Protein 1
Amino acid sequence: MVSKLLEITLSSNVDHYAVLGNPISHSLSPQIHQQFAEQTDQNLRYQALEAPLEQFQEMVEQFRLAGGKGLNITVPFKQQAWKLTEQRSEFAERAGSVNTLSFDQNNRIIGDNTDGCGMVRDILVNLQQTIKGKRILLLGAGGAVRGVVDPLFKEQPASCVIANRTISRAEQLVEVFSDLGDVSATEFSDLAGREFDLIINGTSASLQGELPPLPKNILAEAGVCYDMMYSKAPTKFVEWGREQEAVLAVDGLGMLIEQAAESFHIWRDVRPLTDSVIKSFRS
Ligand code: ATR
């Protein structure tokens, strides 16, 4: 199976999957999926492919035509991917972004967003924290945050405040998700004097080694800080959480592995165990 345009060549004796992004060289997804495949005895190959910024759609098409079974989509293509899908899961529909594409027997492109479920599962199952009744502060209003609001509300938090540098983007999200419960928008400068039980960083500030301008004393006693980004060294936000005496301040490695497990489940109809995979990456 060969496609000429982007020279994707897939052997036919194994099912092929890939993650598409730009840049992509840092991606841990191939290693994660390889561990899942070994653990569940699935015959598949998973690679990381860099899509040229202007050729995302062609790349998806070529991968599909070459016989690929499914794709993960990462920065900066999740919203574009949503537009390519002919059918979407409930969470993906509203998030306006997808991170998982499956190609069905009729060659239709099905879109899912497993980021939010992955994060919620990491918080509830791996980290043994509760979301129900909690006052949540979500930092950021980009694609990362869009993907988690719906799954978070399925766990019945008391409220969710979305703080963003550009307030209009936070307000747009409130419009999209306001029917779910108590959702509101704010600027960082208006956070002083308020208190939250769970603060989730969905900005891309950590990628640049930066921290959103957060006032002190907004984390409640026994509060939790969760960074959707991950890195080998603690992110600035994780460091901030520790300074605020969070009972737990963690990065998003668990989320990354859980969203991958959710995608794997969609594609292969078998759910890999994530415990050992998270441990192996942490070490
Ligand atoms: P993604 O899809 O990864 O969420 P995005 O849509 O570009 O990427 O969104 C990035 C988010 O991080 C935005 O909320 C952005 O704030 P603006 O909407 O004001 O641009 C936020 N962000 C990025 N760098 C930041 C920084 N240094 N401090 C605070 N917020 C930052």
Note: Residues 116-255 form a domain with the Rossmann fold fold (CATH 3.40.50.720).
Protein 2
Amino acid sequence: MRLILLGPPGAGKGTQAQRLVETHGIPQLSTGDMLRAAVSAGTAVGLRAKAVMDAGELVSDAIVNAIVAERIGESDCASGFILDGYPRTLAQADAVEAMLAERGLKLDAVIELVVDDKALVGRIIKRADAARAAGQPVRKDDNAEVFEERLREYYKKTSPLIGYYHAKGKLVGVDGMADMDSVTAQIETIVKQVAKS
Ligand code: AMP
């Protein structure tokens, strides 16, 4: 099963991807996590990406596409994966198509977490507070100022993917404002339908 989770920052993509991992045993491919790991490790990619990420802007398509192309070729992706936070631009969406076509694979569904903008900044602040309380590192981009830019980037560059995948008949929306468990239940219903078709 190959799924994309689509939605603005703070929509709950990471949480729901984790739950899919636990239930279905396929990996979560979060480009945000991969880029943060590259930044922490001080790799060439990390050095190039850091300032862009801290500013809430998008890292270049070339960098992100290369990371994903390499990752989906790994053996744990053979029976499927969940793309979380990727693709984020039309060029990235085209790149996914090409990567899958090259391997004779297809995307099963694009699940859009539909949320109310006003709730998002509050969720991000909560995430930062929870990390702080747990003594974990707080993401540099999880604050109100950078969040504004992340949301702007989402509307400018990522939201066109909604139309792109709708036109391909792949888009399924779920109510991302519902509590976490019912979002998970909505996603599981979609996954079951996809598995049958
Ligand atoms: P995330 O953890 O998905 O919220 O991503 C954190 C940051 O990583 C984003 O604000 C971007 O700077 C960068 N990033 C993650 N995924 C992508 C992507 N697919 N394309 C470009 N930049 C990305």
Note: The pocket of adenosine monophosphate is lined by residues 9, 31-32, 35, 52-53, 56-59, 64, 85-86, 88, 92, 141, 150 (CB under 6 Å).
